[in-house]
Amino acid sequence: MFLVKKTGVARLPFLLVMNGTILFLNGTSSSGKTSLLHRLQDELPEPFLNLGIDRFIFMLPQRYLNRPLWDEVLGKAIHAGTAGMALFSGMHHAIAAAAKRGNHVIADHVFVEKAWVDECAQLFSEMNAYLVGVHCPLHVLEQRERHRKDRTLGQARAQFDVVHKYTIYDLELDTSLLTTQQCVEQIIERLKDPPEAFKRLKTLLI
C-alpha cells in the first residue's frame, strides 16, 4: 500500500471498496458449526475470514478461560458476564468493520443473549449479512458431547432452549439429517439471493 504525503504527514490513501458478505452460523455447542465453517471456507470461491466466537474467546488471557474468571465471559453457558458482553460486542463491531473494508466473513456464534441479536440487527441490517440457524436434536448433541474430549458436558443442554429464542433466519439446517456437504450446498445456494433476517429483526426493535 502506498503512503500519500500531505503537508509533511504520511497518510493512507482513501480506498473505495464494496462491503463484503457476512455469514453467521448460530447454534448450540456441538451442533456442527465449526465443521460447516471450515468446509465453507474450502468451498466458497472467495476468501472468507473466520471471525467466529472461539477466535475472540482465545484472545483472552489464559486465566480467563478457567473458573472463576470464565464466569465473567460465558461460564454460565446461557449468560455472558461483563467481560463477555464487552468481548462479543467487540466481535460484532470487528466483523462489521472487516466487511466494510471488502472482506468476506464467516462467524460461528451462540446467540444466547438478546442484546447480541439486537446489536447485530442494528449493525448488519443494511449489509450483505446472512443468519443461518444450525439445529440438531438434544439427544444427538449430548451424544456428540460425550464423544468429543474438547466439549463441556451439559453445555448443549443449557443452550438448547435459548440459542434460537431471539432469532429469525435466512436459512435453517438440521445437522442430524444433513451431511456437512449438503448443508454447505444449501448455504451457498441461499447466498445467491439477498439476506432478510437482520432486516426483519431490526423492524422488531422499533
Structure write-up:
The chain is an alpha/beta fold. It has a single domain (17-203), classed as P-loop containing nucleotide triphosphate hydrolases (Rossmann fold), CATH 3.40.50. 39% of the residues lie in helices and 15% in strands. It contains eight helices and seven strands. The strands form two sheets. Strands 4-5-3-6-7 form a five-stranded parallel β-sheet, with helices on both faces. The chain has a two-stranded antiparallel ribbon with strand order 1-2. Strand 1 (4-6) and strand 2 form a beta hairpin. Helix 1 crosses helix 7 (180-190), helix 3 runs parallel beside helix 4 and helix 4 (114-124) packs across helix 8 (197-203). The N and C termini lie far apart (42 Å).
Structural descriptors:
disordered N terminus; alpha/beta; 5-stranded parallel beta sheet; globular
CATH architecture descriptor text: 3-Layer(aba) Sandwich
| Share of residues in strands | 15-25%
List the helices and strands in order: EEEHEHHEHEHHEHH
What's the rounded overall pLDDT mean? 90
Q: Report the strand count.
A: 7
Rg value: 18 Å
What does the main sheet amount to? 5 strands, parallel
